[in-house]
Amino acid sequence: MPSRKLPNIIITGTPGVGKTTHSQLLADLTPLEHFSINDIVKNKCCHTGFDEKFKSWIVDEDKLLDEIEGEVKQGGKIIDWHACDLFPESWIDLVVVLRTDNTVLFDRLTERNYDEEKVTENIDAEIMQVILEEARESYDAEIVIELRSDSAEDVDSNVERIKAWYEAWTKNNGGNETEAGDDESDQE
Description:
about 190 residues, 5-stranded parallel β-sheet, about 15% strand, globular, 7 strands, alpha/beta, about 45% helix, ATP binding, kinase, Rossmann fold, single chain, 7 helices, two-stranded antiparallel sheet
């Protein structure tokens, strides 16, 4: 049984599958904190520079892990990132891999003004199930779930499913929903 009172969940998948949307909605419905790795990399300088070709930060994984270790080990985080295999298994209680139909993903990435090479790279990664395979290779099969994220209805259903998992986890692990720092007595 984990020593954390609240679980840590990774919500991962190819860019454009809805990780941030899922994470924010789940954070609104639970005491879990949305933990955007992209924001941490940028704001805490956990990178070695910016890749102009791919328009993304070059992540310094060691620095990133050092930066977040204390907070993540406390529990109560929804880790939102396009990769999952660098987080130690002991930190994680559930890995949610979002998958999206390629035509839907193409439209989403095009709306973000991704260049053709970046769109193609991400569509290929989705077709080859790169992130799903990383998750399956890095974590116990019992904690990895794959969910479709093609529509708003999928998002709502997924968030409810993850929320139900969270509620069962806290019940089974002696957690208390108000122990994430949002205790009602602290708000008075």
